[in-house]
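pinging the channel bc i need a second pair of eyes. not urgent but kinda urgent?? the chain im working w is below, pasted from the shared doc
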Amino acid sequence: MSTHADPQPPAVRQLRLVVEAEDYEAALAFYRDVLGLPEQAAFSGGGGARVTILDAGRATLEIANPAQKEMIDKVEVGRQVAPKIRVAFEVDDARGTTERLVSAGAAEVAPPTVTPWESLNARLDAPAGLHITVFQELRTQDERESLDGFGKDRPAHP
């Protein structure tokens, strides 16, 4: 019998990013049909109200201080460009995905670039006014954690 208490289930079950898109059809086609996010559900209501929920796989919330945000922009783009919120999508092929997204109307801000944290990242301005990153991990999580500057912040309270 273990002396440790059973871990509590996570308090949050899903991160859902809600984005208002002036051109709903174009944004839906871009994210669902070109980027490849599977449709999970769709709803419509009075007055032409519509929403589609797309499955983006596992969600994370990346909290960065201003110095880190500036450093990421400089590494990936060469200058500060990202607004306060940037949406990043992990993909299997950053180069191919970038080409598809640009062909579908995204504006390439920076081409796929190998970062110090060993991922291949591209920046784009995409439909619905989103500044996005598509990234491909080039090393496993364990391999990345062995690099300088990597690790895990520990909570201030146990």
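so The chain is about 25% helix and 25% strand. and The two ends are 23 Å apart (CA to CA). — does that match what u expected or am i reading it wrong
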